[in-house]
Amino acid sequence: MEGREMIFHTAAKEQMPVTRKVNTKNGVFPYLYYPLLEETGVVKHCFTTRLGGVSKGIFESLNLSFSRGDDREAVEENFRRVSEALGTEYENFVFTDQTHTTNVKRVGREDAGKGLIRQRDYQEIDGLITDEPGLVLSTFYADCVPLYFVDANHRAIGLSHSGWKGTAGRMGSATLEAMKREFQTEPEEVFCAIGPSICQNCYEIGPEAALEFEREFPKHKGEILLEKENGKYQLDLWRANEIVLLEAGIKQEHLAVTNLCTCCNDKLLFSHRATQGKRGNLGAFLCLE
């Protein structure tokens, strides 16, 4: 696959996801990570690119979806490569069951492998939280927004999928509320990252979706919605999720906001919009050391 330089949008340097290249038995494996999260000293995490896997065609090469028509053995091998790069065990991944909800589930050791080597016994879960070391929370993307949460004080973490519906429903706040309920997490102690996803320039929505954001974010309409002459809008999911997290109590200095667009970089990141749905999935992963 022919690569190209990634397109970053304007953002503070410390907010940028950083590329790391890990030497594995299959060669160099690249992934993205946030120094802000790594500096907490309690987690391992990454956001994958399209590179480093074995899938072919529209799934080339690190597709992490079993449901889009790719060869299952190829996807399984891709997960083995992710597990090796992260220094974790293959059977430790636990998947969401993403349906654009704001439902968050606490998972534990008994959930290890669900979605990968075992059937899930839950449905419609877009966020996962845990205080179980070694359990790899796993969410999947091709334009939607990954949200990472690290509570080093209580040694608890969360990882949530937030598309436009989840963002309008304040998925970030729902995840923090679940962590507060389960682990006594205080938002001001949490470090967060808003991961690579589609930028405002690339993300057009219709008036009905825009109306939901006008109602939910009345003070911030001008920041997150840009009205076009055709009656549609450009939506800034990055800023909307930032507002959600800050209003939920996250400190600005504890928050990293992506400047890397999946759609602008469709040769290196899977994008549903850029490929009209002919694509694989990226993965966000987070686990306690």
- Secondary structure: number of strands: 15
Largest sheet: 6 strands, mixed
Considering DSSP H and I runs of 4 or more, what fraction of the residues is helical?
A: 10-25%
Structural class: alpha+beta
Average pLDDT figure: 95
Chain oligomer state: single chain
- C-alpha Rg (nearest Å): 18 Å
* Strand arrangement, major sheet: 1-2-3-15-7-4
Number of alpha- plus pi-helical segments: 8
Tertiary shape: globular
Report the β-strand fraction as a percent range: 15-25%
Uncertain regions spanning at least 5 consecutive residues? 1-5
What's the SSE pattern? EEHEHEEEEEEHHEEHHEEHEHE
Distance between the first and last residues' Cα: 34 Å
What is this entry, summarized?
The chain has 289 residues and is of the alpha+beta class. The chain has helices spanning 35-38, 72-86, 164-168, 171-183, 207-216, 221-224, 237-247, 272-275, and strands at 18-24, 27-33, 43-48, 93-95, 104-106, 127-130, 136-141, 145-151, 156-162, 191-194, 204-205, 225-227, 233-235, 255-257, 282-288.
Structural write-up:
With 289 residues, this protein is α+β, with helices and mostly antiparallel strands. Helices cover 23% and strands 25% of the residues. It has helices at residues 35-38, 72-86, 164-168, 171-183, 207-216, 221-224, 237-247, 272-275; strands at 18-24, 27-33, 43-48, 93-95, 104-106, 127-130, 136-141, 145-151, 156-162, 191-194, 204-205, 225-227, 233-235, 255-257, 282-288. The strands form three sheets. Strands 1-2-3-15-7-4 form a six-stranded mixed β-sheet. The radius of gyration is 18 Å and the shape is globular. The model is unreliable at 1-5 (pLDDT under 50).
